[in-house]
Design brief:
The structure holds two protein chains of two kinds. By secondary structure, chain A is mainly α. Helices cover 70% and strands 0% of the residues of chain A. Chain A contains five helices and no strands. Chain A is rod-shaped. The two termini of chain A are 43 Å apart. In chain B, 43% of the residues lie in helices and 17% in strands. Chain B has 14 helices and 13 strands. In chain B, helix 6 packs parallel to helix 9. The chains are: A mainly alpha, B alpha/beta. At the A-B interface, helix 1, helix 2 and helix 5 of A face helix 7, helix 8, strand 13, helix 12 and helix 13 of B.
């Protein structure tokens, strides 16, 4: 398709592409009404101003969970709105420090591996979701579209044979 | 005396604002020079000042400055500011496209284009010098009553991106996710840039021709509602390898272009034409759909048709996603075609001389300074 001086012969190439599109349509590789279908889909979305559904943000929730760890006595507030209340809280905190620490250690021992497991699960789900969306679904879509086109073509050929007058109507 | 530039709206990646920023460097050799806009995207907050700040510039109160106004769509606030000011006014005309071409595609923009033409007619007595980027645009300006229009193409340097360091964030994202040939488009998510046609063509491409191809449409999405519709279309067609990353600065564009296998333009405009020039400078083959015959920029102007003609694969006007997809597939799959288009594009980009255009601009400006 190149002319003199390696310049592309655009007109020849466009003509070749048009012929190729026509041939593929003829062979049924492109379903009839493909462009109209795509146009109609977009026009419908535009007419109704359709907005995409926002997916649940797992990562943000996992980040919130991670920010809540590690558990510790220092994160228990000792302030009070009442006069002298803060001092009372500090005294009580010191009095029950051993028990509080014991509880916190037990909960932390559960929460840390639980959080790590949830993070790993979220990562795995995210990866799976990406694989599905970016690889599996598009590939399936392509196969289904091609199969549908082939079935339409086959049905057209068979239907034409059974009902010779169908085309005229 | 100071020489400042005025634009209605400033957003990153916009061809007019990028040209204005480049001209600012040229103007600063002569006099203090800034760029002011009515709407300023926060990404450009340090580079472009709000229009209201102009009043604080030396000489603004005495009208001793020269204002270079980049006129595109209508903006009443800017028009009033220019009509009421005493400064000498230089007009640089950047038509979007013919309003009649936009009426069906984008009624709000069509209205803005018509408003812009009315404002241009109103500004005519105030304008000391009128500049147009191409003979077509000059002729269009003459229909609005501007008798003396000078030709002054915007100084675009398509090769300058090649020297930029890659944008780390974009490079990392491409490293992580790009696993097939990338079809790159620019111009943003606006109706007249035809993101719907690009997505339809890409749908045909990955369904029937090149299943592992990716698509990225760079550029701003100024209307959230329209972006939602385009995003819904993308999701409905399951085009998860089609990306709408938003506006891209120079370094980001350079990174995208280094990764691109083909550049595609479905719409027209200075932004798209400038992006196509950049793609050609990078040796990325260009596929473009010729704009409709009645539109500004369809002829020998600085629209996509004129920019790419003879150096890229220009398809006839029309909304044919299948033909567009076949053209993409041909460039992706045919080494000879790809090499030939890349070489032709490089030659075209090398012929662009921004210094000549800068000199032409300054020569014209000297008449009013």
């Amino acid at each position: 398709m190149t002319g003199a001086d390696d310049r592309p012969d655009i007109d020849a190439l466009v003509a070749e592409l048009r012929a190729r599109v026509a041939a593929r349509r003829e062979r049924g590789e492109y379903p009839g009404g493909l462009e109209d279908d795509l146009d109609a889909r977009f026009a419908h979305l535009q007419r109704h101003q359709v907005a995409p559904a926002r997916p649940f943000d797992v990562r943000a929730q996992v980040a919130r969970m991670a920010a809540a760890l590690p558990l510790g006595r220092s994160r228990i507030g000792l302030t009070s709105a009442r006069k002298g209340g803060a001092a009372v809280h500090q005294v009580v905190a010191r009095a029950v420090a051993r028990q509080t620490e014991g509880i916190l250690q037990q909960v932390q021992a559960f929460a840390q591996p639980a959080a790590e497991s949830i993070e790993a699960l979220a990562e795995a789900v995210d990866r799976l979701d990406r694989t599905l969306r970016e690889e599996v679904i598009p590939a399936l879509d392509a196969v289904i579209e091609r199969q549908a086109a082939a079935e339409r073509q086959a049905a057209g050929a068979t239907g034409g044979a059974r009902h010779p007058g169908a085309g005229a109507s | 005396m100071e020489i400042h530039q005025i634009v209605a709206s400033a957003s990153p990646g916009d061809a007019v604002i990028e040209a204005a920023l480049e001209l600012r460097e040229v103007l600063r050799r002569i006099a203090p020079s800034e760029v002011f806009a009515h709407h300023v995207d926060e990404a450009l907050a340090g580079e472009v000042g709000p229009l209201a700040d102009y009043a604080g510039r030396p000489g603004a109160d005495r009208g001793r400055n020269v204002l270079v106004y980049h006129a595109s769509v209508g903006e009443p606030a800017v028009c009033s500011f220019l009509l009421e000011g005493p400064e000498r006014l230089v007009l640089v005309y950047h038509p979007v496209t013919a309003a009649d071409h936009l009426v069906d595609l984008d009624p709000p923009l069509a209205a803005l284009v018509l408003d812009g033409r009315e404002e241009l007619a109103a500004l005519r007595p105030r304008v000391s010098l009128a500049l147009a980027g191409s003979p077509d645009h000059g002729a269009d300006l003459q229909t609005l009553g501007y008798d003396d229009v000078r030709l002054s193409p915007l100084p675009v340097d398509p090769g300058r991106l090649g020297a930029l360091t890659p944008d780390r964030k974009v490079a990392a994202s491409l490293d992580a996710h790009l696993q097939g040939p990338l079809v790159l488009a620019a111009g943003g998510i606006l109706p007249h840039r035809r993101p719907d046609l690009l997505l339809s063509a890409y749908h045909v491409l990955v369904t029937y021709l090149v299943p592992d191809a990716y698509l990225a449409i760079l550029g701003p999405c100024p209307r959230p509602g329209y972006r939602d519709v385009v995003e819904s279309f993308r999701l409905q067609l399951n085009l998860h390898r089609a990306w709408l990353p938003g506006p891209a600065g120079a370094a980001a564009r350079a990174t995208w272009l280094r990764a691109a296998a083909v550049f595609v333009a479905a719409g027209d405009g200075e932004d798209v034409a400038a992006s196509a020039q950049e793609a050609m400078a990078f040796g990325v083959p260009v596929v473009a759909r010729a704009p409709a015959g009645t539109g500004i920029g369809a002829g020998a102007g600085i629209g996509i048709g004129a920019t790419v003609a003879g150096a890229g694969l220009v398809l006839p006007p029309g909304d044919d996603p299948v033909l567009l997809a076949e053209a993409m597939a041909e460039v992706l799959g045919n080494d000879g075609v790809r090499r030939s288009l890349a070489a032709a594009g490089r030659r075209r980009a090398a012929a662009v001389d921004p210094d000549r255009d800068r000199a032409a601009f300054l020569t014209h400006l000297a008449e009013v300074v």
